[in-house]
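A sample copied in:

***
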Amino acid sequence: MMTKLLSCHEPRECDSEGDPLLPYSQRYEQYLIDIGYAAGYIKCCKGSVAHLSRWMGSTQKKASDVTEALITEFLDVHLPQCSCGSVIHDRSSLRAALGHLLAAFRAAGVIALRAVELTPIEEELRSYDKYMIEVRNLASSTRKDALAIVGRLLFSRFGDGCINFTEIRAEHLRDFFAQQAKHHKKPTSIGLVVSSLHSYFRWRAMLGDQIHSLVGVLAYPANWQLSSLPKALKPEEVEQLVASLGQVGPSMRRADAIVHCALDLGLRSAEIARLSLDDIDWRAGTITLRGTKGRRNDVMPLPVSTGQAIAEYLRQERPKTKHRMLFARRIAPRELPTGPALVRKTIRQAYARAGLEYTRSHLLRHTMASRLLAGGSSLKEVADVLRHRSLNTTLIYAKLDSRSLIKVALPWSGSAS
């Protein structure tokens, strides 16, 4: 990468007829600045655009002609036989810079937005997603999983062709289920396949398709509710994790704040990623969770340790951005929001620094529930903090409630008591 940056050149000065992209140079530069790229990378990108502009001028093309097809022609036809001097010739650098050019031109209205032609299956999935949002009010993660499963079924039967539900037979559905079972080993995971397909077929039946018989083809696998103990960190492991925080290095303060959000508040990865600067009321000492798994807004008290970790991150590490998301990307493009994957990765790395052989970020949510029970909280109070809609969801933690279990435990056979 350093070699590429050292080979960058500023666009040459010339008239706009021979250099059709020159009038847009400042606008392109400002676009890259706005999304958080460094000066050296911006210079490299401008050099790449200068190469494209020189070729466009020699072939009498205008700025409005910039499209994916034009860039493909430039990279595949011109670049292999290019003899232009003092311009960028590296293909990967050119492709990245010209991708930014397309985005900048479309954002500014210089060229039209890209027309997207959807396949019949894509149209179907879009309609089903709209139903899941407007009628069932499902969370984005649930919809994403359902769309992936339904999309695989439809594609396995129809490819890019039209959808004809009369062609789906029970044996097709069983074959598809058998293939999915190879990738979904756990009962809960394969159960997601069944529930997603059941829901989709009920929706199609509601629209008038004669596919009621398909709903009963697949049965849920045996999955005994509450059959296992929820895994959580031991008290000494919690101390070990907390003691490992506060290290110096890139994004370390962001990592500390994320770990505290998961450990002190029991937040899910997606909830941490969605936090906004406007969600924290520093005077009241509260934090608002918006659009949670239950698609509600919940207000929770902000623990002192969590607030201090967030404040340290905001004061000393968070980069300047235009968006209001609490946790920002360290590298460009900084204007893109962080996602649950970054949160999970951050927590995995925190485990490793603490010398703990864990990987699941959800473990900290279980740990917080276990600590509440150990501190004397009731199951109802744990359910409120975890924001469970049903107390049945919280019942699994009853196995960890030693105080209550002692009251109902039978004496050991042959013991004095």
The longest helix spans residues 39-58. Residues 2-108 form one domain. Strands lie at 280-281, 286-289, 298-301.
